[in-house]
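Work Package 3 committed the consortium to producing structural models of liganded targets before the mid-term review. Because experimental data for this complex are still outstanding, the team generated a predictive model from sequence and the ligand definition alone, so that downstream docking and mutagenesis planning could proceed in parallel. The input record is reproduced below exactly as it was submitted to the modelling pipeline, together with the SMILES string for adenosine-5'-diphosphate.
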Amino acid sequence: MTDLLTVHDIHTYYGSSYVLQGCSLSVGDGCTCVLGRNGMGKTTLMRSIMGLTPPRSGSILFDGADITGARPEMIARRGIGYVPQGRRLFPSLSVHEHLVLFHRRSGTSTAQWTPERLYELFPELAGRRKVSGTRLSGGEQQMLTMARALVTNPSLLILDEPSEGLSPVAVDRVVDACRNLIETGMRLLLVEQNITVARRLADSICVLVSGRSVHNADASVFFEDTALRQELLGV
Ligand SMILES: Nc1ncnc2c1ncn2[C@@H]1O[C@H](COP(=O)(O)OP(=O)(O)O)[C@@H](O)[C@H]1O
Ligand SMILES: [Mg+2]
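The resulting structure, written out as tokens with the ligand in place, is given here.
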């Protein structure tokens, strides 16, 4: 099977600041996890894929099409859902409004996500339909951000540090939801600093060090290699 997403040797700047200095990765089935310490370029890599901070060189292929330099709306429409770091909900919108406004049917995916199906995946949100998104607990906000991305019916879901700042119970809920999604055939590209979460979900991993992808491997191989993990991540 060919990979759904292939990032090849991208280089990305913020103005004159040279941040991604050669990143490559591919996403096939299941969950690909991007690991790396703070400031290594993980979020910039996700922003590059989404077209928010396009790379100056290199290529990004998604679902057989070259999306390098395409506009963010185009990339989202092609089927990439984005759950940004820090969640970014709209204070003026209720839970239900977030889902209704973002709901979009896709021609490609067979099992369509609707607001109602998402309330089944995240029952916590079902009882909170009328509440403003920003008045939810951290865990509920994370679920709503995931639901908002899923209701666009993507074929790939990007999650940037979904466990950040959450209680252990809320982290477990997020991990369970990710597992459910993987079982439905959803592909995940997950950024994590929480190594336990990464270990529980990842099929393959990509490690970033100073804006470079220095290690792409099978997750089981990587997590067995304590010395390598210590060298690249310090954990
Ligand atoms: N908007 C920006 N303008 C300039 N530099 C930025 C911007 N966002 C991030 N950076 C810098 O790019 C580098 C990578 O940041 P980021 O991609 O957020 O890393 P990570 O997600 O791995 O913590 C850091 O040195 C950070 O300071
Ligand atoms: Mg980040």
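Reviewers should note the following from the model. The chain has ten helices and ten strands. These observations will guide the Year 2 experiments.
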